[in-house]
UniProtKB/TrEMBL annotation, chains A, B, C, D:
Its EC number is 2.7.1.2. It comes from the Bacteria. The keyword Transcription does not apply. Signal peptide: none annotated. GO terms for molecular function: glucokinase activity. This is Glucokinase. Keywords: ATP-binding, Kinase, Nucleotide-binding, Transferase. InterPro entries: ATPase_NBD, ROK, ROK_cs, ROK_glcA. PANTHER family: GLUCOKINASE, ROK (REPRESSOR, ORF, KINASE) FAMILY. Gene3D superfamilies: 3.30.420.40. It is an enzyme of class 2 (transferase). Belongs to the ROK (NagC/XylR) family.
Amino acid sequence: MTGLACGIDVGGTKIAGGVVDHEGRVLEKLTVQSPAADVGAIEDAITDVVQRLRASHDIQTVGVGAAGYVDRTRSTVLFAPNLAWRDVDLKAELEPRLDLPVVVENDANAAAWGEFTFGAGAHVDDFLLLTVGTGVGGGLVFDGVLHRGAFGVAAEIGHLRVVPDGQLCGCGAHGCLEQYASGSALVRNARGEAAAGAPPARLLLARAGGEIGKIDGPMVTAAAREGDKFAVDLLAELGRWLGEGIASLAAVLDPAMVAVGGGVSDAGDLLIVPAREAFLRTLPARGNRPELEIARATLGNEAGLIGAADLSRQD
Amino acid sequence: MTGLACGIDVGGTKIAGGVVDHEGRVLEKLTVQSPAADVGAIEDAITDVVQRLRASHDIQTVGVGAAGYVDRTRSTVLFAPNLAWRDVDLKAELEPRLDLPVVVENDANAAAWGEFTFGAGAHVDDFLLLTVGTGVGGGLVFDGVLHRGAFGVAAEIGHLRVVPDGQLCGCGAHGCLEQYASGSALVRNARGEAAAGAPPARLLLARAGGEIGKIDGPMVTAAAREGDKFAVDLLAELGRWLGEGIASLAAVLDPAMVAVGGGVSDAGDLLIVPAREAFLRTLPARGNRPELEIARATLGNEAGLIGAADLSRQD
Amino acid sequence: MTGLACGIDVGGTKIAGGVVDHEGRVLEKLTVQSPAADVGAIEDAITDVVQRLRASHDIQTVGVGAAGYVDRTRSTVLFAPNLAWRDVDLKAELEPRLDLPVVVENDANAAAWGEFTFGAGAHVDDFLLLTVGTGVGGGLVFDGVLHRGAFGVAAEIGHLRVVPDGQLCGCGAHGCLEQYASGSALVRNARGEAAAGAPPARLLLARAGGEIGKIDGPMVTAAAREGDKFAVDLLAELGRWLGEGIASLAAVLDPAMVAVGGGVSDAGDLLIVPAREAFLRTLPARGNRPELEIARATLGNEAGLIGAADLSRQD
Amino acid sequence: MTGLACGIDVGGTKIAGGVVDHEGRVLEKLTVQSPAADVGAIEDAITDVVQRLRASHDIQTVGVGAAGYVDRTRSTVLFAPNLAWRDVDLKAELEPRLDLPVVVENDANAAAWGEFTFGAGAHVDDFLLLTVGTGVGGGLVFDGVLHRGAFGVAAEIGHLRVVPDGQLCGCGAHGCLEQYASGSALVRNARGEAAAGAPPARLLLARAGGEIGKIDGPMVTAAAREGDKFAVDLLAELGRWLGEGIASLAAVLDPAMVAVGGGVSDAGDLLIVPAREAFLRTLPARGNRPELEIARATLGNEAGLIGAADLSRQD
């Protein structure tokens, strides 16, 4: 089907909707505040966004990407850490209101599908998206099919264990990749050094007006771009962990490409180059096997919306 | 197609062939020595095995499982560490000789398919086989499809990195799961303790006639079955690493079941129970997600042959 | 000098004073509340305790053990995390009031000296005390001399790094022994398992009346003594980390004996036996070097008081 | 005593003797081949070297530094990995032949004493020498006294465990510092990268005439000095491990200074600067405690000879 689809990205603070054509172009986009604590209000807001976009476009299907666990039938949100949804059959709620077919998908999976179909992975069949933001997440596409897992909870790539007995993670386990390679890890490392009075952290601290608590991820990236060695090293450390994680994933999954998205990927080569180096240094059987491509994702924060729209069209 | 298929398992020392029916039963089996160093001789031996089995059964397809990298078209063996094959188009060589359709598959993938179709994983759609022998290998089935990877080299599960800066692996990387959870690791640990004169190792050493070099895996398993605490602990340590590795794989892949096969799995619950405990202890987000099943594989060393036969029938 | 000495142990909640003879016997003991937040009041309380003990005993010297960094001249407390002292010259304050010679010492050092002189280490010259309580601390005696370090801050044994990129420690570093082998680690592990609903933790949780937050160290020890496998395993895990740490310390320091004290050592062999096993399993050059002795400390919580008293007598 | 002393350094390939005055100056030096496999011949060679040096200098004592375990009485070599000595009472053998007082000492201890007395550590009381050559060794001086340990085998600093379940070490344990921070580790890493065809290793490989097996430590240092980024990174990696190890040692031992000697220390700041950075980054309680000094050792390969001579004078 080549009609227009509406993609909805439901986050903890904002709901974004977009009209997406069959080539992944966003023809129009509308963003509203997310009433995260009120199930009914979220549904009202989604309905409203779709109806307003529909006024000027012939939308035929709706895809909703949600930050949470979605069941295998792609209709029910089982659990969403930052939203009020608990076992909400979103498809059943929205379809009668909209009189349109609705598909629900985990947001990282939707983003992976978007990048696979229209973005960084458009030229391969086996693809892995790593999103590096507050946490580390991702999505997997194998032989052109989105991999959702037996229980719909696959691709929690940030919870690959990379250090036995390592840093305690919010998930209750120790040593998860997310504890070493996320934006939160970046900020924790930067602030930790600044708090310890490490001389290399001085420039970054000055940039934060001397307030350790004001150091954040974009500040580190900005400093690194201007050549601050300390900031460059912080990003390289993150990249190293990513690359080492990718080497493990390559051994198990053998994708043709890994794209790195999420807010921290704005650092570009400051993150990607060290990731590539670490990948090559730690790849098992290196030299006796083809080497996958590592690149930055290309759709930015619209990947989820575009992917959700396209998935609704596939159904 | 429900006709009979011939499965061939080509190892470094033996070639086993079996006539397999559509329910995975091995009607007849023939095992010959493997002329591993001579490409032509291996092909002759395979041909001979098929022809002899064919004399009494109506074989319609042939599946060959080989320990090596197989290309995505399932015809060419790219590289086989223990055999003379380097870029050998086995399908093209065998089909004219046999006048039968031939499919070539990596042996661990074939075994995974066998267990998935007729063995431990017959009741699930998303399945992971872990084979614990000299090394650690495995195969992946996602939504009923064997996962081969972009370059045909997926499922090298033994090369998931579990210890940063860990034990050097034969693959050139450090800290691979195989270095901690394989039969080789089991024997290395047992001999190491015996060599250091550790009192708990005394019973095992006596069992080996006092010769450290004679301690092997089956001996450890036998001792553990008879209650030797040292042997029990050695197997539990292996199980622990397996379980921790499975927890990481569950986060990324979300299979419904993991079956443990290979020679070391003869230890049964002495290996599986500690694996399950470690899996539960280290599973990310435990309590907020369904928990997969861990069980012993059921087809023993015929899994590869049965799987290869069935894959030839699918084509 | 074989006269009587007064030992004072200043903690965050209590001040204990004891009259100690030249054979390390505590002839009389007095314990009062510690006014931890008020420097002058602590000094008043110490003075009062000494004067009251002096009424009935001929005290000739006073040794004060304090939980904090003490300078090399053994008079000034540089920093005490749980007390108001910051650069307080305690010797100068107390001597005029008491008209007695005063020596100030770090409390863990004092305890090590006590155990070395009258307790578990009385038969050796090179001794290491490991105290396993809320944290992990200790003291070192080399060739009969208490080792205080260049800056007076030696023997922070709990901050030996045992896991690179490991658990974040209160000291700001990652992977410190204390994060794996202390009573706090024991309780964290116990509660974590209980919170995750782990079946083996059920008995322990029942013991805590179903309230996870009520699980504490003595409860784990009590459960282990009664055979609760889960509690036994928790203590064994702590013991394993201790033993592995001791193996590293043996390589560097080569003591004749390591005694394990502190509250968690009440678990006795449930802690010591696994520590010994792990020590032997991980000792470098095992078999080519003598093996030190690992035993439980014998003076209990009076070790610090006895040691401080004796140190004042040495001066 | 301020007379002249003779220092002897007995290695696996050479025996070096020197006449050393009371200010640590080497007045004359003689080096001969070491007949390592023949106990009697080594003793003959030592005797010969002393007698020849004595011809022109008034030698009053002899100190022998030997690569092996030496008993606490400083007379008997218990075990020497590269020499024929097994329980040889060297003092008893040499004194009658030379008619001079002889002291025997472990060579790394002797070097530590040399650096402490006349070299990098001459201004401090608490000193640690780290020697980074084929392996990692060292010596400890606490409050001006050489620390030999209860069994004479202290200061095996290379066998501090830095990675649990890490690289197997020649000592039988896993994860020893020596496996990450020695010249052998440097060469292994360099060759490993070259063997894997890593592009950054190309310049170094060219320097070795394309033969991977010819890459050695001095070559890496030379390349790094000329700015080869790959070689610089290899040395920095070694320095990082050293610095992290020093942070652990600082927590336990609190020395005022750590000097880095041994062949790899020829790399100077290329090794020392990264070590210092890693030390500061991982020091426990950083900011709340004084920070030790890390510098390069100053006596080069004469440290052992000078230290042995001086120790003989002390006796």
